[in-house]
Every structure is written in C-alpha cells, then in structure tokens.
Design goal:
Helix content is about 15%, strand content about 35%. By secondary structure, the protein is of the alpha+beta class. It has a single domain (about 20-130, about 140-160), classed as Jelly Rolls (Sandwich), CATH 2.60.120.10. A hairpin with a 2-residue loop joins strand 6 (about 75-80) and strand 7 (about 80-85). The N and C termini lie far apart (about 50 Å). This is Cupin.
C-alpha cells in the first residue's frame, strides 16, 4: 500500500494525566487530541466538572460536539429542557444546535468532549488559564464571561447567556 503524497499519521499514546490542562468556566479541561494529531478531524478533551459546573448555553457553527459521561452525571439541554444523564451515556449535539451541560450532582463528574471537525481546542487554549497543581482555579467573574463571549465568536461559537 502506497502512502506517497499522503500525510502519515502515527499511533499515539497519551497517558492518564497527560496533555495540556486549562481552567475553563471553572472546569478542568485536558486536551488529549488536538487538530495537529488528527489531521483536523477530531478534538478530544477530558473534562472534570465540579458540582454546579458546566457550560453556558451555546451553539457551535463549525463543529458538532459529543459528550460521553465517564463518571458522575450531567444535566444536558434537550429540546429546551434539562435532562439528567449518567455514566456510560453519550449525548451528541449536531453543528448549529443550541446546547448546554451542567453537573447537577454533589460529586465531580468526568466526561469526554469530542469535537468534529477538530480545531475548537484553540478556544480552550485561548480562554483557559493553565492548571497549576495545588492551586485553585480562577473565579468565573463577569469580566471572564464577557471575554469568553468575545473570544468565542472567533471560533464560530455563539454563547447565549
């Protein structure tokens, strides 16, 4: 089989705890796969969502987003209502669909975020603050939210709240 003229991708192993980590909206987001590793096909982010944490209502105009719950539970926006989903559940939000998720529980939730096509990890890198072990994340202030609104437009995301 010839690979002449094609970019050859290599097998990757990203160990537990590895990958750039950012505080975004009070969640800890670890970028496991970015555009560069997938030829722009997929972004994969592991997210720790504290009780009460999550995202504002938003729409992606460039990519679809899927959320796979590894631990805990989430409340996700479905047809205007928040619906609870637990570990082992997958929720897919097609491009252009208003969506949101929140952790309604009393324990941290652990989820995987999948974006197709890739590229949305750049939003996390720009809006997030790097995680420093042993230090609490920055407060989600009105100034932070206003900045997130401005930056999101650059990445084809519209934040409703």
């Amino acid at each position: 089989m010839s690979t002449q003229g094609q970019q050859v991708l290599k097998t990757l192993h990203i160990p537990a705890g590895a990958g750039p980590r950012y505080w975004v909206y009070g969640d800890v987001d670890t970028i496991k796969l970015a555009s560069e590793e997938t030829k722009g096909r997929l972004t994969l982010i592991e997210t720790l969502v504290p009780p009460g944490g999550g995202t504002p209502r938003h729409i992606h105009h460039r990519e679809s987003e899927s959320v796979y719950v590894l631990e805990g539970e989430l409340a996700v926006l479905d047809k205007g209502e928040m619906v609870r989903v637990g570990a082992g559940s997958l929720v897919h939000f097609p491009q252009g669909v208003l969506h949101q998720f929140r952790n309604p529980g009393e324990e941290q939730s652990k989820i995987l975020l999948l974006f197709t096509p890739a590229g949305f990890e750049k939003f996390f890198e720009e809006i997030g603050e790097p995680v420093v072990e042993g230090q609490a994340g920055p407060a989600v202030t009105p100034e932070y939210i206003a900045r997130a609104h401005r930056v999101s437009l650059k990445y084809g995301q519209e934040i409703e709240e």
